[in-house]
């Protein structure tokens, strides 16, 4: 059976409104971190999306079904790290492998940039996301009480 979605790079004019809706509807309500109004403006969120890389899952109808935003961070004498910043899938599109496909593509990108591992944060209480990442091979390495988040980590080259 063919996938009912396609993963492609973010297109600013075409995708921004749908991604902003997903962020505000699916991610912001789960966050315990105080978020200033300035950080939630269209301008600030769009600027954040444009930093790093964003991939979008399109449905057969051409509608955005989900997205992942990630960055490669590197410092001198430290291996590069893939930082998964945001991943969200429309509620009516969950369970179709979209989130897993988006995460796989982000990890492939990280490997192509010689990232040795991937890291991300999951908000306390977001058990669905926590289980999703555990099934994808991530493990909790630290709890950040000030953020009320778990930090998860996955080696991208496990045999090295």
UniProtKB/TrEMBL annotation:
<keyword id="KW-0808">Transferase</keyword>
<dbReference type="Pfam" id="PF00583">
    <property type="entry name" value="Acetyltransf_1"/>
</dbReference>
<protein>
    <submittedName>
        <fullName>Acetyltransferase</fullName>
    </submittedName>
</protein>
<feature type="domain" description="N-acetyltransferase">
    <location>
        <begin position="5"/>
        <end position="159"/>
    </location>
</feature>
<dbReference type="InterPro" id="IPR050832">
    <property type="entry name" value="Bact_Acetyltransf"/>
</dbReference>
<dbReference type="GO" id="GO:0016747">
    <property type="term" value="F:acyltransferase activity, transferring groups other than amino-acyl groups"/>
</dbReference>
<keyword id="KW-0012">Acyltransferase</keyword>
<dbReference type="InterPro" id="IPR016181">
    <property type="entry name" value="Acyl_CoA_acyltransferase"/>
</dbReference>
<dbReference type="InterPro" id="IPR000182">
    <property type="entry name" value="GNAT_dom"/>
</dbReference>
């Amino acid at each position: 059976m063919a996938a009912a979605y396609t993963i492609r790079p973010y297109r600013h004019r075409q995708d921004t409104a749908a991604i902003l809706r997903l962020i505000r509807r699916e991610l912001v309500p789960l966050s315990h971190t105080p978020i200033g109004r300035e950080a939630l403006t269209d301008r600030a969120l769009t600027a954040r999306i444009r930093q790093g890389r964003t991939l979008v899952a399109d449905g057969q109808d051409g509608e955005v079904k989900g997205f992942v935003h990630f960055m490669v961070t590197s410092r001198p004498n430290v291996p590069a790290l893939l930082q998964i910043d945001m991943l969200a899938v429309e509620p009516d599109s969950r369970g179709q492998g979209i989130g897993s496909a988006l995460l796989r593509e982000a990890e492939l990108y990280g490997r192509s940039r010689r990232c040795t591992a991937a890291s991300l944060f999951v908000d306390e209480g977001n058990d669905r996301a926590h289980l999703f990442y555990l099934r994808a091979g991530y493990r909790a390495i630290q709890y950040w009480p000030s953020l009320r988040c778990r930090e998860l980590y996955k080696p991208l080259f496990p045999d090295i």
